[in-house]
Design goal:
It is built from 18 helices and twelve strands. With about 450 residues, it is of the alpha+beta class. It folds into three domains: about 160 residues, 2-Layer Sandwich (Alpha-Beta Plaits); about 60 residues, MutS, DNA mismatch repair protein, domain I, CATH 3.40.1170.60; about 160 residues, DNA polymerase, Y-family, little finger domain (Dna Ligase, domain 1). The chain binds magnesium ion (MG).
């Protein structure tokens, strides 16, 4: 689906969200350096610091005692996640008033479709420009919730997000004909989801900025990075326009996103869990007659920082033995240089192809024999149920933590309504019902 009209996609992101929430909840903190401390007792690592605190050099990931040392008069707040979720919900309720299409991405971040607003909303009204409209939205969130948000407007979600980073704090619009110029000197690593592995591959081609990417031959980008490479090349050249998609109809990915019951300091246990998740997902894909060409792994640590990596198979893959071996490599890459406990594990298989391989029972190569084993296991599970055959990883896991013994079926992508359910524990439709109450304030 390509719309000829340039998309106008707005990205809205809370500034230092958790720290801002603390100030919103307690007016006496206003103007003072405030940081939110992680760990069960709030004495672990800084997970958010407001602008006043950042002036003292306090950063996410810093130990709380260190923050106190560099800024003795600052305030350490213990995280109040229930309150953050409530404020988040109210923030999205306000955003809903400004667009028919809203896609929440995280607790303080979402995309709004403003395409064709200039023809239908901004024309013949007192609100005459995109900047007026967006600043109106930002002011309302500031006034009603006392939360500062920044935003960026562009022709794609990628552009909108980069515009927000450039704007912080504030608002930046990148008009379609200025995209290439806007991107030219920006490091390509700023792109959400680029990943360390791709960044390294791009650097090897001499491409550190979007400007460098734009000057590479498009065929090189396509050969090295597939569809993503083509998209990046068009984007860097200011030629990428995409509609904001709300839902994905056919399965194009399968993903699993699990917050562990406790932050796991044992990386081996985290790997065991990742392997068992991957095995479960590949089983699901096989039942649907699909096999992935790409996989990615993202780990979120205690302090909410993230590390991610992806792999593209030479051919679509369906064998657990091969896929899990690659997953182990990705895991090692993602964890390198980290020491914090693991909070969340995200695995995604994408670029799905139909599964047309019929593995022979007795193969002549190692790969074929593994394939036969996998297929036999699949058949046994089909006959006796999911728990009939456990991989070593699954077996180890069951003994480690009963929480994981009954994995829920997972959904491809996270459409808006599921994200709403996850973030606020409510259905998306119900968000609108609270509108009256919010507006009365
Ligand atoms: Mg934010």
């Amino acid at each position: 689906m390509v719309s000829r009209l340039p998309s106008r996609i707005l990205h809205v992101d809370g500034d230092t969200f958790f720290a801002s929430c603390e100030v919103a909840l307690d007016a006496s903190l206003s103007g003072r350096p405030v940081w939110v401390g992680g760990g069960r007792r709030g004495d672990g690592i800084v997970i958010a610091a407001n602008r006043e605190a950042k002036r003292f050099g306090i950063r996410t990931g810093m130990a709380c005692f260190e923050a106190k040392r560099v800024c003795p008069h600052g305030v350490l707040a213990r995280p109040q996640y229930d309150e953050y979720r409530r404020l988040s919900k109210e923030m999205f309720q306000i955003m809903e008033d400004y667009t028919p299409t809203l896609v929440p991405m995280s607790i303080d971040e979402g995309f709004l479709d403003l395409t064709s607003m200039d023809r239908h909303v901004w024309r013949d009204t007192t609100v005459s420009t995109a900047a007026d409209y967006v600043n109106g939205l930002r002011d309302r969130i500031q006034q009603e919730l006392r939360l500062p948000v920044s935003s960026g407007l562009g022709r794609s979600t990628w552009m909108a997000k980069l515009a927000t980073s450039a704007a912080k704090p504030g608002f930046v619009e990148v008009p379609p004909d200025r995209e290439k110029e806007f991107l030219a000197d920006r490091p390509v690593g700023e792109l959400a989801g680029a990943g360390k592995r791709r960044e390294r591959m791009l650097a090897a081609l001499g491409a550190l900025t979007f400007g460098h990417v734009a000057r590479l031959p498009s065929t090189v980008m396509k050969d090295r990075f597939g569809i993503w490479g083509q998209q990046l090349w068009l984007f860097a050249n200011g030629r990428w326009n995409e509609p904001l998609l709300l839902e994905v109809k056919d399965r194009t990915t399968i993903s699993s996103n699990t917050t562990l019951p406790y932050d796991e300091p044992d990386y081996e246990a985290a790997l065991v869990f990742a392997l068992s998740e991957s095995t479960r997902m590949i089983g699901q894909l096989r039942r649907e007659g699909l096999q992935p060409r790409e996989m990615s792994l993202a780990i979120r640590f205690t302090d909410f920082t993230e590390s991610a990596a992806m792999h593209r198979f030479e051919h679509p893959q369906f064998r657990n033995s091969i896929i899990n071996a690659v997953l182990e490599e990705l895991f090692a890459e993602v964890m390198a240089g980290h020491a914090q406990p693991v909070r969340q594990i995200r695995i995604c298989f994408s670029n799905l192809k139909p599964l047309d391989t019929q593995p022979t029972l007795w193969g002549t190569t190692d790969a074929e024999r593994w394939g036969a084993l996998d297929a036999a296991m699949q058949q046994l599970e089909g006959q006796w149920g999911d728990s009939a055959v456990l991989t070593g990883a699954q077996y180890a896991l069951r003994h480690q933590d009963a929480t994981h013994s009954n994995p829920k079926p997972k959904c491809p992508f996270v459409p808006a309504r599921e994200m709403a359910q996850k973030l606020w524990g409510e259905k998306l439709e119900q968000l609108s019902k609270h509108h009256g109450a919010i507006k009365k304030r």
